[in-house]
Amino acid sequence: MDSQITQAIEGAIQARMRPHTPPINVAVQGTTVTLTGHVANQATKDAIIQLARDTDGVIDVVDNLVIGGGHPFLDWLFPWRDPNQDLEQADRGEW
Q: What is the DSSP letter of 23?
């Protein structure tokens, strides 16, 4: 069951991520999901947490997401990328 929840959340996040954004780590233990990684802003953080909460089988979400920080390598490699947007819909309030 843990792997099914992990795959569901990771798939939903990846489907909404913009290219070249730092990955979000999803760890599942029973009905608890732990999210770890960097996000650009509060809207993105809230959207990812809500996505996890809305996944079947999830009762609790541990939020270890950090706003800012980004990924220095990606910032150097892709200077044109917008570090203030991770999820396309989150910033437009479409979630």
A: P
